[in-house]
């Protein structure tokens, strides 16, 4: 079975082709980062317009890369949500129109299910059941994954998502957009013990997250430091930014790791999966590997290029759904908000 995957939920146009016998046979990605950088965040209307320009040419490129034509496809999977409504509508309109024209099934894919299943693209893949830490720009969740489609949310974010906290802190420090990756690179050269930022929600039971207090604490520290007597921007700023970046990252990673530890204890599972943009973070990867040894569990991460948004995870999730004869719809669907738990009913 050969499935085309279309991802246009935010600021990346991702197109890929997954063959259930040969694996991933094409993978194309176009990032709109440069278009949005001047606004310091994603400008939704610009995102939709750019997806319109890029989606069809990237589908052609993907077919060329795979050495197939559209007639060889068995189904078309597209991200139906959650995400920006205009951006989602581009992928769903193109996906469904192609499916109608080719008389193929179209499969609506939940963006976060795509992230959650991305580690299964690897040769060394996790087996169900597992706990998944889903950490992206819009979500921070711990999910009990009993099987594909059987998801129970154990913990969710009460305010900012982990990626959002990285991006907002990076913006405060003047690091540009999207700041998560830039901040984590600077953190490598900073002193993570210089500032002790709060570990949100660790003093309370449960698995929910909240990162807005941490963000405020970073802001107050930053203001205090740059207003200190004797502060010299030319000589002190570089190290201050690196130290704040490292201390902030340590607080967020520590919180995520401790919540994972709690979720593993609560479920008794031995497998932990980490996915979404923040799973690319090297400090998080390192500390979760240490948790493996401590708890005698095994954690799995997607390959770095499949941590952030991509078409491969959508093509793969679509193929899995089609094999189970699920999520076939053939209607243009776009859901800006869509809970993972609702997938149980599809
Ligand atoms: O999954 P993703 O591509 O998009 C959403 O579905 O939201 O995640 C993007 C998020 C951004 O907030 C970005 O700053 C963050 O992932 N991110 C990182 C790193 N790479 C990407 N955060 C921390 N460290 C990184 N290395
Ligand atoms: Zn994403």
Description:
There is one protein chain. This protein has 346 residues and is α/β, with parallel strands linked by helices. It has two domains: 153 residues, Nucleotidyltransferase, domain 5 (2-Layer Sandwich); 175 residues, ATPase, nucleotide binding domain (Nucleotidyltransferase, domain 5, 2-Layer Sandwich). Helices cover 43% and strands 18% of the residues. The chain is built from ten helices and ten strands. Zinc ion (ZN) binds next to helix 4.
Question: Which CATH C-level class of the largest domain is it?
Answer: Alpha Beta
First CA to last CA: what distance?
21 Å
Shape: globular
CATH-defined topology of the largest domain: Nucleotidyltransferase, domain 5
The CATH architecture term of the largest domain is: 2-Layer Sandwich
Strand content: 15-25%
Number of strands: 10
CATH superfamily of the largest domain: ATPase, nucleotide binding domain
On the 0 to 100 scale, the average pLDDT is 96
- Strand pairing plus helix content: what structural class? alpha/beta
Portion of residues within helices: 40-55%
Biggest β-sheet: strands ordered side by side in the sheet: 3-2-1-4-5
**How is the biggest beta sheet arranged?**
5 strands, mixed
What is the total number of structural domains?
2
- Spell the H/E element sequence: EEEHHEHEHEEEHHHHEHEH
């Amino acid at each position: 079975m050969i499935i085309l995957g279309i991802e246009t939920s935010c600021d990346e146009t991702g197109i890929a082709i997954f063959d259930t016998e040969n694996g991933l046979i094409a993978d194309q990605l176009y990032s709109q980062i440069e278009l949005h950088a001047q606004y310091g965040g994603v400008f939704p209307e610009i995102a939709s317009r750019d997806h319109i320009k890029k989606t069809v040419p990237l589908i052609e490129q993907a077919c060329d890369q795979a050495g197939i034509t559209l007639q060889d496809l068995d189904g078309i999977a597209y991200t139906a949500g959650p995400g920006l409504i205009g951006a989602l509508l581009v992928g769903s309109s193109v996906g469904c129109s192609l499916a109608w024209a080719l008389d193929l099934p179209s499969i609506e894919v939940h963006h976060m299910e795509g992230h959650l299943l991305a580690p299964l693209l690897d040769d060394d893949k996790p087996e169900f059941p597992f706990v998944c830490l889903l950490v992206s720009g819009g979500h921070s969740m711990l999910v009990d994954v009993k099987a594909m489609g059987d998801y129970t949310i154990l913990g969710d974010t009460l305010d900012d998502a982990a990626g959002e906290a990285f991006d907002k802190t990076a913006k405060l420090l003047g690091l540009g957009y999207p700041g998560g990756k830039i901040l984590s690179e600077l953190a490598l050269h900073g002193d993570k013990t210089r500032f002790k930022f709060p570990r949100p929600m660790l003093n309370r039971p449960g698995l929910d997250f909240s990162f807005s207090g941490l963000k405020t604490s970073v802001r107050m520290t930053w203001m205090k430091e740059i207003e200190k007597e004797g502060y010299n921007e030319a000589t002190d700023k570089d190290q201050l930014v690196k130290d704040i970046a490292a201390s902030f990252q340590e607080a967020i990673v520590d919180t995520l790791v401790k919540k994972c530890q709690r979720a593993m204890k609560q479920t008794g599972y031995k497998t932990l999966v980490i996915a979404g943009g923040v799973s690319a973070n090297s400090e998080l990867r390192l500390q979760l590997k240490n948790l493996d040894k401590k708890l005698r569990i095994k954690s799995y991460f997607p390959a770095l290029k499949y941590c952030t948004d991509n078409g491969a995870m959508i093509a793969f999730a679509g193929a899995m759904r089609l094999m189970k004869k699920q999520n076939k719809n053939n209607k243009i669907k776009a859901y800006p908000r869509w809970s993972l738990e609702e997938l149980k009913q599809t």
